[in-house]
Each structure stands twice: as structure tokens, then as C-alpha cells.
């Protein structure tokens, strides 16, 4: 049986988001450009389906999810939503066990993703961001790396 990600969040395009991609970003530090998240960062996910900023927090603090993989798209033009969905499902499920320590099918975690919108693609966004979240919607309070959750 295959499970589908609980939600996907598109990256919004804006001049502010573009300027943030050009500036240095710390591993922790509150509100970060969604273009600049890194593997191992724990995040609070916004309620909006399209985001340009995401809150990064310590993994020991309550958080919604943890970035466990970022895949750089090399297509010359943005794939269709359907193609992106297929690639996100494949990439995020195939890389899940290597980071979490358990196969996705055996895990108590779900997957959500960030992916480029048409607008953010024009600004150079090429990343599919895979984020592990609790399967029951509860907050996490530790890193999920290697936990086998």
C-alpha cells in the first residue's frame, strides 16, 4: 500500500524571497526564506498552501517537521503539477529510510513537501524539499534523524 503526502506547500515568488536567496542564512534563526531551508532543520509549517518564508526552530523545541532531503531539479522548464507530484512522491519516499532509519511504510511519520511554483521557478527555485511530519498532526520535540520512527 502506498501512502501519499499529507500536504504539499508551494514556494511563493516575491522580490523579498529572491533577495533572501542571495543573502547568507544561518541554520537556525527564526523566519527563513523557504528557498534557503537545509537538511536537518526543524520547521514550523505555515497554514497557507503557498509559502515564501518558513520558521526554523531548534529540533528540541516543539516543531511541525524536519527537512530530510532536498532534490535539485535539472529540467529546463518547470514540470507540470502532475509530473512534480510523481517526482516528489518518488524522491521523498526513496530517501526517507536513509535519513529516518525506517522504511516509509513502517514509519509513524508522514511526508509533506515544498516545491517550486511557476513564479518561484522563474526566480531560480529548483528544489523539491522533503519534510517528515507526525502522522497524527502532533508536534515533534526531537530530531527524527536515525530514530526509526
From TrEMBL:
Domain of life of the organism encoding this protein: Bacteria
Family annotation (InterPro entries): Septum_form (IPR026004)
Extent of the signal sequence: 1-24
Pfam families noted in UniProt: Septum_form
Protein keywords: Signal
Septum formation-related domain residues: 33-130
Protein name: Septum formation-related domain-containing protein
Species per Swiss-Prot/TrEMBL record: Schaalia odontolytica
Lineage: Bacteria, Bacillati, Actinomycetota, Actinomycetes, Actinomycetales
Amino acid at each position: 500500500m502506498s501512502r501519499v503526502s499529507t500536504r504539499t506547500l508551494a514556494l511563493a515568488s516575491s522580490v523579498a524571497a529572491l533577495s533572501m536567496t542571495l543573502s547568507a542564512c544561518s541554520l537556525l534563526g527564526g523566519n527563513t526564506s523557504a528557498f534557503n531551508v537545509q537538511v536537518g532543520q526543524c520547521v514550523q509549517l505555515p497554514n497557507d498552501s503557498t509559502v515564501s518564508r518558513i520558521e526554523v526552530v531548534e529540533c528540541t523545541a516543539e516543531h511541525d517537521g524536519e527537512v530530510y532531503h532536498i532534490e535539485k531539479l535539472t529540467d529546463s522548464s518547470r514540470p507540470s503539477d502532475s509530473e512534480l507530484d510523481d517526482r516528489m512522491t518518488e524522491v521523498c519516499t526513496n530517501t526517507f529510510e536513509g535519513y529516518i532509519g525506517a522504511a516509509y511504510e513502517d514509519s509513524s511519520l508522514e511526508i509533506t513537501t515544498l516545491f517550486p511554483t511557476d513564479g518561484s521557478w522563474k526566480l531560480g527555485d529548483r528544489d523539491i524539499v522533503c519534510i517528515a511530519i507526525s502522522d497524527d498532526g502532533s508536534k515533534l520535540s526531537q530530531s527524527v534523524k536515525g530514530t526509526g520512527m
